[in-house]
Specification:
Structural class: alpha+beta
Mean pLDDT: 87
Number of strands: 11
Largest sheet: 11 strands, antiparallel
Low-confidence stretches: 5-25
Number of domains: 1
Number of helices: 3
Strand content: 25-35%
Distance between the termini: 47 Å
CATH topology: Jelly Rolls
CATH architecture: Sandwich
Shape: elongated
């Protein structure tokens, strides 16, 4: 009887741990849909998240700082890439005709990332990393489902996806776009970077650690 009770308790603990792990993994990033509605009809949707800084790729057909892989394009090349609907400006694309993945490496951790994407396909995907640690990934099918649209590359479809970390444990500093076929087209990449601590903050942290060390030493002596 005692062994059965212990076994049941252990099983409950294991089940709760598994549930917590699954919940944590699925809750790393929350996803919402919607931007500014593309009021001009020429630049695609942009983020309306307060504090977000947007890269619109319009300065040049060269990759902006922080980007490797993929390519900046304008217009449509049949079978290779297609401009997102309502976006006649430059945009970022990845796929066999350019290169994949297209990687954005950030200067420090971020809590939010958003982008305007066109013609979502099942073979598109996006991944978020902190260094080499994968935070969360989304397939093209998942992204389409979240936006309530098809995943068959309909070039009339354009949506703005917002990704927000649910806690600082899930902040990220690298975003990778993948497409095993042509292509994955996105624009107006928006990001919120975490604040850089002021020197006074570092000083307070060090003072606090010093005080803790002093108290521990006094306790040991006593």
């Amino acid at each position: 009887m005692t062994m059965n009770i212990k076994y049941r308790r252990l099983s409950i603990v294991v089940a709760l741990a598994a549930l917590f792990t699954a919940t944590s993994a699925s809750a790393a990033l929350t996803v919402t849909i919607g931007g500014n509605g593309n009021p001009t009809g020429t630049y695609g949707e942009k983020s309306i998240t307060p504090g977000a800084v947007t890269t619109d790729f319009n300065a040049s057909l060269l990759n902006p700082a922080g980007y490797t892989g993929g390519a900046v394009k304008n217009g449509t090349s049949s079978g290779n890439w297609a401009e997102p609907p309502g976006d006649t400006s430059n945009y970022f694309t990845v796929g066999p005709s350019t290169s994949t993945p297209g990687i954005l490496t950030l200067s420090r951790l971020a809590s939010y990332f958003g982008f305007y994407g066109g013609s979502p396909d099942a073979y598109n995907s996006i991944e978020f990393f902190n260094g080499n640690n994968l935070i969360q990934s989304f397939s093209g099918s998942q992204l389409a489902t979240l936006a309530g649209v098809s995943n068959t590359g309909d070039q009339a479809i354009g949506k703005f996806w917002n990704f927000t970390a649910t806690s600082s444990a899930y902040y990220f500093n690298k975003v990778e776009f993948f497409s095993t076929q042509n292509a994955y087209e996105t624009d107006n990449h928006a990001v919120i970077l975490t604040a850089v601590p002021e020197p006074e903050t570092y000083a307070m942290m060090l003072a606090g650690l010093g005080l803790i060390g002093f108290m521990v030493r006094r306790k040991n002596v006593a």
